[in-house]
């Protein structure tokens, strides 16, 4: 993993046909690609295999959250597509996390397996409504420590929690942060947000950025502008 933040473009399109025009203008050296629930459900595993074949680092974001056996098998199936990273929900608990880890333990070139802590769309009030009375920051750290002790490679969190995670879980534990918004970009449903230069300055390993790129009039120009802003 390099010191500079890698950008993963979240391909949140309805189908493969809508995603290809942007992908065809991108190169594997420029960014990674995140395929989430919407696109995977419509475009399927062959689409993912094609991205891998073209040399892209693919983050398959299906956020598995189920009983340990099911998650183990789902992570294995995802890994067999040749993706670079897969994720599960940390709130599935220790045995589920260990099952996710074990799914890929003996694979050559295994993908990173990471766990979502508290969704970047959630606030303290949202957490309270699901029975969690601590702040998002405190809950994220608790789940990051659980994820680390279960032997996974890192977490999805907001950029606001990234420094505390490094302090609690050590270097080499990946921090993957969605909720990235350039100044002036629409916040949408995200709540714990940060700008790309601020997040990069924290040394965050992976920045996930979707709508500020995919919904721009010129997505490639928007990506380039964000990349320039990281080094300015
Ligand atoms: O696991 C994720 O990728 C994820 C976790 C999280 O807490 N928040 C979050 O936004 N994401 C994903 O990151 C992407 C963010 O997209 P934008 O909000 O459009 O930049 C979406 O594809 C989400 O599904």
Automatic annotation (TrEMBL):
<feature type="active site" description="For OMPdecase activity">
    <location>
        <position position="63"/>
    </location>
</feature>
<protein>
    <recommendedName>
        <fullName>Orotidine 5'-phosphate decarboxylase</fullName>
        <ecNumber>4.1.1.23</ecNumber>
    </recommendedName>
</protein>
<dbReference type="InterPro" id="IPR001754">
    <property type="entry name" value="OMPdeCOase_dom"/>
</dbReference>
<feature type="binding site">
    <location>
        <position position="211"/>
    </location>
    <ligand>
        <name>substrate</name>
    </ligand>
</feature>
<dbReference type="GO" id="GO:0006207">
    <property type="term" value="P:'de novo' pyrimidine nucleobase biosynthetic process"/>
</dbReference>
<feature type="active site" description="For OMPdecase activity">
    <location>
        <position position="61"/>
    </location>
</feature>
<feature type="binding site">
    <location>
        <begin position="61"/>
        <end position="70"/>
    </location>
    <ligand>
        <name>substrate</name>
    </ligand>
</feature>
<feature type="binding site">
    <location>
        <position position="190"/>
    </location>
    <ligand>
        <name>substrate</name>
    </ligand>
</feature>
<dbReference type="InterPro" id="IPR018089">
    <property type="entry name" value="OMPdecase_AS"/>
</dbReference>
<comment type="similarity">
    <text>Belongs to the OMP decarboxylase family. Type 1 subfamily.</text>
</comment>
<feature type="domain" description="Orotidine 5'-phosphate decarboxylase">
    <location>
        <begin position="6"/>
        <end position="226"/>
    </location>
</feature>
<feature type="binding site">
    <location>
        <position position="210"/>
    </location>
    <ligand>
        <name>substrate</name>
    </ligand>
</feature>
<feature type="binding site">
    <location>
        <position position="120"/>
    </location>
    <ligand>
        <name>substrate</name>
    </ligand>
</feature>
<comment type="subunit">
    <text>Homodimer.</text>
</comment>
<dbReference type="InterPro" id="IPR011060">
    <property type="entry name" value="RibuloseP-bd_barrel"/>
</dbReference>
<keyword id="KW-0456">Lyase</keyword>
<dbReference type="Pfam" id="PF00215">
    <property type="entry name" value="OMPdecase"/>
</dbReference>
<dbReference type="GO" id="GO:0005829">
    <property type="term" value="C:cytosol"/>
</dbReference>
<feature type="active site" description="For OMPdecase activity">
    <location>
        <position position="66"/>
    </location>
</feature>
<dbReference type="GO" id="GO:0004590">
    <property type="term" value="F:orotidine-5'-phosphate decarboxylase activity"/>
</dbReference>
<feature type="active site" description="Proton donor">
    <location>
        <position position="63"/>
    </location>
</feature>
<keyword id="KW-0210">Decarboxylase</keyword>
<feature type="binding site">
    <location>
        <position position="181"/>
    </location>
    <ligand>
        <name>substrate</name>
    </ligand>
</feature>
<dbReference type="InterPro" id="IPR013785">
    <property type="entry name" value="Aldolase_TIM"/>
</dbReference>
<feature type="binding site">
    <location>
        <position position="34"/>
    </location>
    <ligand>
        <name>substrate</name>
    </ligand>
</feature>
<comment type="pathway">
    <text>Pyrimidine metabolism; UMP biosynthesis via de novo pathway; UMP from orotate: step 2/2.</text>
</comment>
<keyword id="KW-0665">Pyrimidine biosynthesis</keyword>
<dbReference type="InterPro" id="IPR014732">
    <property type="entry name" value="OMPdecase"/>
</dbReference>
<feature type="binding site">
    <location>
        <position position="12"/>
    </location>
    <ligand>
        <name>substrate</name>
    </ligand>
</feature>
<comment type="function">
    <text>Catalyzes the decarboxylation of orotidine 5'-monophosphate (OMP) to uridine 5'-monophosphate (UMP).</text>
</comment>
<dbReference type="InterPro" id="IPR047596">
    <property type="entry name" value="OMPdecase_bac"/>
</dbReference>
<dbReference type="GO" id="GO:0044205">
    <property type="term" value="P:'de novo' UMP biosynthetic process"/>
</dbReference>
